[in-house]
């Protein structure tokens, strides 16, 4: 069980890093969803599934609206991906 919680914690940190290091909102939303799912899984493993469900619905509902709005404003035909060297530099730095 301790390894599972450690794995969820690492997934939560990597999801946050994916949101923070990617300048394109198209791919940053993937990190947001990953971090939210893993964070709610962490809460379920601690024994509070109702709080996890409410947090999942409220957090993703609010943040996805912000991401949709920013995607509409930054309609970039060729967004940067995680494979670009500049994005890799953001993550390492």
From TrEMBL:
UniProt cross-references to InterPro entries, sorted A to Z: ComplexI_Subunit6, NADH_UbQ/plastoQ_OxRdtase_su6, Nuo/plastoQ_OxRdtase_6_NuoJ
Catalytic activity from the UniProt record: a ubiquinone + NADH + 5 H(+)(in) = a ubiquinol + NAD(+) + 4 H(+)(out)
Main location per the UniProt record: mitochondrion
Location within or outside the cell: Mitochondrion membrane
GO cellular component: mitochondrial membrane
Entry keyword set: Electron transport, Membrane, Mitochondrion, NAD, Respiratory chain, Signal, Translocase, Transmembrane, Transmembrane helix, Transport, Ubiquinone
UniProt EC number: 7.1.1.2
Topology of the protein relative to the lipid bilayer: Multi-pass membrane protein
Transmembrane segments: 30-60
Signal peptide: 1-15
Pfam families: Oxidored_q3
MF GO annotations: NADH dehydrogenase (ubiquinone) activity
Similarity section: Belongs to the complex I subunit 6 family.
Function: Core subunit of the mitochondrial membrane respiratory chain NADH dehydrogenase (Complex I) that is believed to belong to the minimal assembly required for catalysis. Complex I functions in the transfer of electrons from NADH to the respiratory chain. The immediate electron acceptor for the enzyme is believed to be ubiquinone.
Protein's name according to its UniProt entry: NADH-ubiquinone oxidoreductase chain 6
Protein source organism: Buteo hemilasius (Upland buzzard)
């Amino acid at each position: 069980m301790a390894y599972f919680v450690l794995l969820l914690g690492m997934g939560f940190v990597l999801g946050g890093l994916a949101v923070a290091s990617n300048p394109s909102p198209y791919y940053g939303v993937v990190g947001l969803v990953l971090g939210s799912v893993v964070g709610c899984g962490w809460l379920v493993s601690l024994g509070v599934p109702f709080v996890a469900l409410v947090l999942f619905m409220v957090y993703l509902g609010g943040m996805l609206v912000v991401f949709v709005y920013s995607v509409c404003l930054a309609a970039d035909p060729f967004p940067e991906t995680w494979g670009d060297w500049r994005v890799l530099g953001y993550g390492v730095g």
